[in-house]
Amino acid sequence: MAEYFGFTGKIARVDLTNETVTVIEPAEEIYRKFLGGSAMGAYFLFKEGIFDPKLDPLGPDNLLQFMVGPVTGAAPNARITLVTKSAYNIYCASTCGGHFGSELKYAGWDGIQVVGKASKPVYLAVMDDTIEIRDAGHVWGKGVEESELILKSEVLAELESREGMLRDADLNPQWAAMRPPKRLGMHAKRLAHVMAIGPGGENQVWYSCVVTEGARAAGRWGAGAVMGSKNLKAVVVRGTKGHKLADKKTFLALVSGIQKSERGDYFWRSYGTAGIGANSAYVEDAFPIRNWQWCSWADPHVKAIAGPFMDQTSFVRKVSCYGCNLHCLYPVEVTSTDPLMDGTMSDMPDWEAMGMVGGNLGFMEMEGTDPGQPFTGSIKDQAEHLAKLQYTTFLHDNYSLDFIEGGNNLALVMELVQRGFIDKNDLDGIDLKWGDVHAVDEILKKIVTRDGIGDKLAQGTYETARYFAELKGKPEIMNYSMTAHHYGQPAHDVRSPADKNAMEYVTVNRACAHTGGGTAGFKTGDWAAAIAGQNVSAAQNSLVHCQFPAGHWAGSRIDLIKAATGWSDFSDEDLQLVGAREYALSRLFEIHIRQLKDPKAEWDRQVPPRWFNDPLPTGSQKGAVAYEGKPDVLFNEALPAYWKERGWTEDKGVPTLDTLKKLGIDDIAGSIASEHL
Amino acid sequence: MAEIKRRDEAPKPTKEPKKTETSASGVSRREFLIGSGAGVAGLVIGGVVGNQVIGKPAAPVVEAPAAEVPAEGEESPYKAGYTLVFDSVQCTGCMLCAVACSEKYATFLHPEETANLASLEFARIRPMRFQYVDVINVCSYCNLYEWAEGSSKFPCEAVCPEEAIITVPEGEGEAGYYGMGYKWVDREKCLGIDKCWRCAEICEDQFASGMSFDPIDRKAQVCSRCGGDPECVKACPEPGALSWVPAARNGRYFANTPSDYAELLYRKIYNHVRDL
């Protein structure tokens, strides 16, 4: 095996059916082309033939990958990317923070790939080079929080598994006599890091996620369901081997510079993304309220979604990911007059949570009012509203559900109840009204156990809308499904010109991702700039580092890659190519697994009807609709122009053979592209 | 109550900085102990008096620069009799302390082997993330009580069969790494993890989790407070999480095993009772 710096040169491949672990050693050329993370994951989806349209995402043949990149490890802001074919039959590349990514690199791996299906619940115990498939019967069925704490102590370094060697003769007689009877021996340490699923993943709820550290998730596109389908409860990693770097001195100096810069970042160090809430709602007018019927309250007194209010009410700590000084996660203890919620340990909410399972579920208004009316409540009422939001966040985290898709799903059902399309008889007797946290609690239990109506809702927003549209014979129900490419819209609407542009959700390579980048370019029609933004974002998911401190990284990103890998000729252009490769591969993946004959009609135009049908009713951008109300300009002029700039065909958006050749991926993707050109 | 002395200035060395051989001074280890025993009897370690000085430590493989004597009037960064106080509520779990510590000692002890390796395994301070709580984990300098436990040594020191856990007096050691009355492991005497783990076991059994082992030479590692100017404190970005303060207390009342400490933090921060 060639010796690498930055990388370990090894990816573990675990076959759960045959209970074998083998090692993949990719060539240096592959590392240079794809780095790691999402782009490397996309490469393996092609190499392993996961693009086969007949391959069941929840069957044993699907490939689930936990991938890190060359700077994951000793660099700050470490993340890990989970790449697989989603239960929604879409491309999944979902990233997650915490310490897990670094720990995996320290254990000596650039990634773990899981195929097959275990005959009974198992977890993977990774202790440096040793990977064991262990029974997980004792944690199956348990929530994420409890499972993680149990599993954390089960992966021990060799020393910690030893029997005690101390005898009373080693102590003074007096001490020996005083020594407490409870002997902990060598088993007290807990250093392992865990990524686990809860009941949502176990029961293959389509939008279930994979969670670490209680509240961090590889949240979107349903990697948890794939994990559950393999009977894999968790991956537990303990790494002691360190991270090999070509130029350690330069690397550590750059890292130190990023960290120092972060320490001056008042915004992130105050409330994390909680600090964005009120701005988004009242300034950008793009915040989800009651299934996006409103995107701003008429009355700016609604402030339970504001960072300072949350901090004053409930933040108790700050939590960092490995090596990061932004500490953007704030754990809370929920305080409420409602015993259901009181005392729950939860986090924040961050921007997405406060939108998707806060405003979107109608938690923020007084009973009997709607968001277009003045707010009549007190500060105590606002604190209770925040409690509902934090409790619902906890439920999603602990069940391992994506609260973005989940929030859209519940809000869809609530709007259907509001509009009289369905009632509680369609929901197993649960009266799902705006703002009712007890009803949310009950319906979520049904979803994660797939009990009754929960079995339908477990397939996500789009399928839920389709189920009710068919059940009631009312196709207009589809108008309330806030999904692009069949996946829920995150907490940035595109009707307001002040936030994201509709083209972002139409073109982003992971269905309806809010972290795709390129916003400025899309707004001005500068497709080259937009594409560069998207490519950098994809490259970040391949390195893998966080997007929040991207500004602190920007000047040293290439130098860090060089210092880590020793590739002295690596340039910005190479980084752009990594993103371009992932975009080309993921585009072909979506087209091929769905066998799209006319991708524009069958796929690209699958966006929320509300974008163009319902102007914003309140706020600074009142009256706005998406893309100035010109969907034809979007899909017939802008989109082909964007495709052309990418080197894809203008009619279908298929990467041309020329483009694939330029990107150096014609060998793995050329034949698939030929089928669709 | 023992008398407590504290020094905020580095002592003026009375002899040449020591070289690689312990016998370089012309005095054998045993003679040194006898000869200088009286001189260090009143030395303060973590605020508690009475730790016997066993002998000089073995010098590391690589020669470090000799202790710089501060000029007249200049304050030395190396402080004796100080305590490392940690507040895990303020800690965010960013690991910068561990990175700084590990890098410092890896470069000091194994510069060639770690020239291209960033690792946390040389760290004497090891924060551990549970869930929603981070536990700062470092040697607290526990002391046994003579009247109850028959000794006033550190527990790890008391169970070491080779007397390898030593206290390095002022004027000895390597400035910035060990000395000034703080602990150190005599790497020549330590049997190594493959033969003996009594220090780690007694620590984790009754006190905390302050001992770790060097992955290269397999010898025990313990926090030497960087000889009076801890690198972790300088690296920590969160005010109040790590403090280097002139407090004089028995460290055993700061010490908890990581799981126990996490349970306490769940109570303190979240009002939750958890059984870990």
CATH class of the largest domain in chain A equals Mainly Alpha
Rg for CA atoms of chain B: 18 Å
Number of contiguous helices of chain A: 28
Number of strands of chain A: 17
CATH superfamily of the largest domain in chain A: Aldehyde Ferredoxin Oxidoreductase Protein, subunit A, domain 2
Q: Give the fraction of residues assigned to helices of chain B.
A: 10-25%
Largest sheet of chain A: 6 strands, mixed
Describe this entry's structure for a reader.
The complex is a heterodimer of chains A (677) and B (276). With 677 residues, chain A is α+β, with helices and mostly antiparallel strands. Chain A is 40% helix and 11% strand. The longest helix of chain A has 22 residues, at 572-593. Chain B is of the alpha+beta class. Chain B has one domain (22-270). Chain B has seven helices and eleven strands. Chain B has helices spanning 29-40, 96-109, 146-149, 155-159, 198-207, 231-235, 258-270, and strands at 44-45, 48-49, 83-86, 117-118, 128-129, 134-135, 165-168, 182-185, 212-213, 220-221, 242-245. In chain B, strand 5 (128-129) and strand 6 (134-135) form a beta hairpin. The model of chain B is unreliable at 13-67 (pLDDT under 50). At the A-B interface, helix 4, helix 5, strand 13 and helix 8 of A face helix 2, strand 4, strand 5, helix 5 and helix 7 of B. Strand 13 of chain A pairs antiparallel with strand 4 (117-118) of chain B.
